[in-house]
Amino acid sequence: MPDPDPRIAFFDRLAPQWDADQPPIAETLARLDQLQPTLGLQAGDDVLEVGCGTGLVTNWLLEQVRPGRVTALDFSPAMIAHAQARGVEAEFRHADVCSDDLGRALYDLVWCMHVFPHFRDQAAALRHLARALKPGGALLVLHLDSRQTINAFHDRIGGPVAGDHLPDPQSWETLLADAGLRIAELIERDDVFCLRAARAA
Ligand SMILES: C[S@@+](CC[C@H](N)C(=O)[O-])C[C@H]1O[C@@H](n2cnc3c(N)ncnc32)[C@H](O)[C@@H]1O
Question: Which CATH number do you get for residue 163?
Answer without folding.
Answer: 3.40.50.150
